[in-house]
Amino acid sequence: MQTDISNLIKGQDVFFKGGGTLAISTRKQLLKALKDTIVNREEVILKAIYKDLKKPTFEALATEINIVIGEINNTLKHIDKWTRPKRVASSILNFPSTSRIHQEPYGRILIISPWNYPFALAIIPLIGALAAGNTIVLKPSEMSPNTTAIIQEIIQDIFDQDHVSVVVGDKKISQRLLEFRWDYIFFTGSTEVGKYVYSKAAEHLTPVTLELGGKSPCIVDSTASFKHLAKRIVWGKFLNAGQSCIAPDYLLVHYKVKDRLINELKEEINKAYPDLCNSTSDYANIINTDHSQRLLKLIQDQEVLFGGTVDGQLFVPTLVNEPHIDSPLMQQEIFGPILPIIGFQSFEQIQQIIDRFEKPLALYVFSSENSFTDKVIQSFSFGGGVINDTMVHYADKNLPFGGVGHSGIGAYHGDCTFKTFSHQKAIVQRSSWLDIPLRYPPYKGKLKWLKFFQR
């Protein structure tokens, strides 16, 4: 395998240096081919995702396929503008001149994608890397083998392997890939593995995007409207059985409305998932039994208000009351269908809890008071968030998606994806018809003019 990867990288290096990725018309053609193939093989992709996660067709279509198609459409619509050199104002010290920014592809890109949204989180960054003019090696997760297999088939059908290739295998293969020098690395996964990826990239000073996670809080103020409150929290928490990096990890609710919210959460769970054990249930599986058992251990010795049972890879939506802040449940990202509920009476209590953790990937706040939501947004650092809903910021192609601190480095979606995989090359073009002597020695008598023009 070592020789195969080495030869693959050499082939991509030759392909890139030969200009095989540079023509905008070629990039468009390949993006259109990718879109057409996905549309034509939609049912096959949905079946593969179902085999891996038992993800309902509606969820898989909305969060895996449609969002990819939307990303391709948006890229095709704007790629001419994105790739065009951008004129910017020139410094007066460089007069006469023009200044512009060229979008230059980095070169060889490594993308390592996760299992929780196995299709979308592999293909969306690939779209941006392709549009920016790079070669790509994609390493999908071995934990979602059926989706990985269909991704490999699609890529092999469309691309020259020296342009885009899929490498399959376990974490040892990922580790092997990280031993090589890349021009950019894009990783989506856990913070723990992200640190390892970052350390390997640092050996070659390779720039990275790390899309990680963390304990994303959901705050419910006493003034929050209950009209859609419980429904939106249940949807965001239990979509994909809670296996979303931006799912609400724990709920902070004002004591005045805590009991009412708990009752409504129970009602909404029953409405959303009335037949959990039915093969047509609208509820996904946990990725494997090991993860199910990990989740089960987290609720040991906890006060379970709802759920708490597991059957193989089916983990019932679970509500936990007032877990201790130092319990295992609160010391790691849950990444499953368990929602801890913690009451608060003051903003200071909210701060004490949130500040115990690293900066989260997402934060959600429900309130009817703008002063309260403004205070929350200004008081805490997080990747992105929503007021009076959960998770919906991910679907907005006009917003950058990414973390901060331990929840990630860099952002993507829409034009941010293109920019992520492009180096912004600055160019100044001077004219020869005039040359202002200010910058040249001797400097006597020029100091005041330097201050005048440069400050």
TrEMBL record:
Pfam families: Aldedh (PF00171). One of its GO terms (biological process) is aldehyde metabolic process. Keywords: NAD, Oxidoreductase. Residues 17-427 form the Aldehyde dehydrogenase domain. One of its GO terms (cellular component) is cytoplasm. It comes from the Bacteria. SUPFAM superfamilies: ALDH-like. The keyword NADP does not apply. Gene3D superfamilies: Aldehyde Dehydrogenase, Chain A, domain 1 (3.40.605.10), Aldehyde Dehydrogenase, Chain A, domain 2 (3.40.309.10). One of its GO terms (molecular function) is aldehyde dehydrogenase (NAD+) activity. The active site is at E211, C245. Belongs to the aldehyde dehydrogenase family. This is Aldehyde dehydrogenase.
